[in-house]
Amino acid sequence: MQNDSLFKTLPRVANGTVRVFIDGMPYQVPRGLNVAAALLANGPLACRTTVVSGAERAPFCMMGVCFDCLVEIDGVPNRQGCMTPVQDGMRVRRMQGARSIA
Amino acid sequence: MTVKHLDLLVIGAGPAGIAAGLEAQRHGLDTLVLDENAYPGGQIYRSVSHSPLADPSVLGADYLRGRALVDDFERSGVAYWPQTLAWQISQDKRVSVTRQDAGGGTLQIAARAIVLAGGAQERPFPVPGWTLPGVMGVGAAQTLLKASAMVPQAPMVLAGCGPLLYLFAWQLIQAGVGIRAILDTAERGSYRAALGHMGGALRSPSYLAKGWQLLRAIRRAGVAHIKHVEALRILGEQQAEAIEYTVAGQVNRIETSLVLLHQGVIPNTQITRSIGCDHVWDDAQLCWRPRLDSWGETSVPDIFVAGDGGGIAGALAAEPSGRLAALQAAHRIGKLDAATRDSTASPLRTELARHNAIRPFLDTLYRPADGFRRPADDDTIVCRCEEVTAGEIRAMAKLGCVGPNQTKSFSRCGMGPCQGRFCGATVAELLADIQGKPVPEVGYYRIRPPIKPVTLGELAVAVPSPDGSVLPRAEFPK
Asked: How far off is chain A from B203, nearest CA to CA, in Å?
C-alpha cells in the first residue's frame, strides 16, 4: 500500500519506528510522526467518510484547524489525527459516515 | 478540580508566545507557556529544535533562525507544557486545560494575566472540489515537511498566491521535488496597486529581496508559473484527478492527484471569540481580528493577544509583539514600573513598525480575489464539515437571514467539528455581499467553549500539576 501514497519520506534523522495498526493492519511508522501523517504515508488516502453525504475525506490542514482528519484512536472516535503523535501499539481506525445509535 | 495559580499564562509556543514567556521571566513573573503541539516553535518554526530531516537546510535560513529562539526558550527554565489544550477561558482568567500526553487529564489555571499567542490558520479557499482527498493546504504540506520529513511523491500543482506558496515552492525545489505547475491567482492589477505601497515596503527591503529571490529561483528551476488564473475547479470522483483553471476566459486542465491550495493566512480567532473579546473586520487583510491596544491588550482587561492571532504580521513581528504584551502584563501585576516598561518597549515598537511596514504592500499584492473568497459557483462547498454550499448560503440570505448565527440555525453551517474555523469568513463575506452590507454588520459565529472536543473521561481525571508545585485543591462537596 506504501506505493499508493501521495507522499514519500526524505532522509530522516534515525529515531526508530513504532508499530501502529491502521484498520487492523500493522505498519512500522517513524517515531515522532502524528497519526494523520502516518495515514498519508501508508495510504489509503481517505481517513473517513463524512457524516452528511458519505464523501471521502483526507487530512487537509495538518495543524488542528479543519477536523477533516478525525479518526478513531485506541477506541476513542473523533480524535484529531494531526494532533496526536503515534505510539507503539496504537490502534487507528478510519471512520465511516455518521455513528449509528442502535 | 486542581487549580494552579500563576502570574502569567501564555497560550501558544510560537515566536510570539516564546518571546512573551522569556520577557515575563526577565521581570520575575511566575509564568507558564502551554501549547497543543509536542515541541515549541509554532507553525512557522515547527519542530525546528527536533527536526526529523537529516538535512533541515532545505527549509531555508528563515526557518533555521528559529532554532536560536527555541533553544533559548528550552534552556530558559520557563515552565512549558506541550500537548496541552486550553479549551475554556473565562473573562476572569480561569483557564480549563487538558493535557493530552500519557496520564492526561484536566485542571484549571487561575492567571493574573493571559497572553494568547494562537497564531494563524490558512485562509479558506472555497473552490469546487476543495474537499476531495488529494487537495490540501500549502501550509499542510509544509507542515508535513517540517514535522514529518514528508514531501509529495510526484510533481503536484500549487494553486493560489501569497508569500508562503512561493516559499514552499522554493523548499520543494531545494528538496528535489518536482512541481507540475504554479497556478497563480494574484489579480492582474494587483502589482500596479501594490506599487502604491512601495514606500512602506522600502522601509523593510529584506522582505522585497527575499521575495524576489524566491520568484527568481522558481523561474530558474523551470517551473511552469501560470499567472492571472481567474477560476479553479478540482475534478475527481473519490479523490483529486485533475485541476481545471481559467486564464483570460480560456479553460485549461492539468491531470494531477495532488493539489495544494493557498491564499494567505488569517488570525485564528476561536479563542478570543470564545472569551467574548471585541473583534474588528480588517478591510486590508480581509479577515477578523481582535481589537487590541498598543500593548496587544484585548477589550477584556489583562487578556492580551500577541503575534499573528492579532493580525497577520509574520514571525519577526511576533517576537516584539509578544514582548510588549509581557511588559504590560508585568506592569499590571506590579513587577515593572511604568518608566522601565516604556523604555524597554520603545525599541520594540520601532522593530514592530519596521516589520509592519511591508504589510500594505504584501496585502495588496496578494489580495485574494473576490471570486476565490465568495465562490460564484453555487455548488461549491463553503462549510466543509456540514457540506453547506455557496448556493444554500445565498438562498438563506435571500430569505432574510441576517448573519452567520442564523444561517447556522437554518442549515448547521458552521456547526460541525471545526466549529466554523474554515467557513466563518466565507459565510460572513457572502452574506454581506448579497445583502449589500459591510461585513462587520453581518458579524460572526458566537463561539462557545469547549473550543475543542474534550471527552468525559478527560474531564473526570483531574491531574496534579506536573511540575510538582503544591496546589490548593478543592474537596468534593459532601
From this structure: 33
Are B147 and A83 within 8 A, CB to CB? Answer: no
Number of domains in chain B: 3
Report the residue count for chain A. Answer: 102
Q: Where are the domains of chain A?
A: 2-93
Q: Do both B274 and B236 map to the same domain?
A: no
How many residues does this entry show for chain B?
478
Which residues face A90 on adjacent strands? A20
Domain-embedded: residue B311: yes
- Domain A2-93 falls in which CATH fold? Ubiquitin-like (UB roll) (3.10.20)
Q: Is the pLDDT score of B474 beyond 80?
A: no
Which residue has 495543524 as its cell numbers?
A63
Is the domain of B103 the same as that of B168? no
Instruction: Say what the pTM is.
Output: 0.95
Each residue of B367-419: pLDDT tens digit?
999 999 999 999 999 999 999 999 999 999 999 998 999 999 999 999 999 99
B52–A8 C-beta distance less than 8 A: no
Q: What are phi and psi of B137, to 5 degrees?
A: -75, 150
Residue B383's domain spans which residues?
A: 376-442
Write the residue in A57, A65, A85 that is nearest to B121 by C-beta: A65
3-state secondary structure at position B47: coil
C-alpha cell at B19: 518571546
Contact B387 A62 (CB under 8 A): no
Regarding whether B310 and B251 lie in a shared domain, the answer is no
Residue A65 at interface with chain B, using a CB cutoff of 8 Å: yes
Pick from B387, B70, B422, B91: nearest CA to B268: B422
End-to-end CA distance of chain A: 34
Give the separation between CA A60 and CA A47, rounded to whole angstroms.
Answer: 11
Question: pLDDT by residue (tens digit) across B203-241?
Answer: 889 999 999 999 999 999 999 999 999 999 999 999 999
Residue B449 covered by a domain: no
CATH label of the domain that carries residue B169: 3.50.50.60
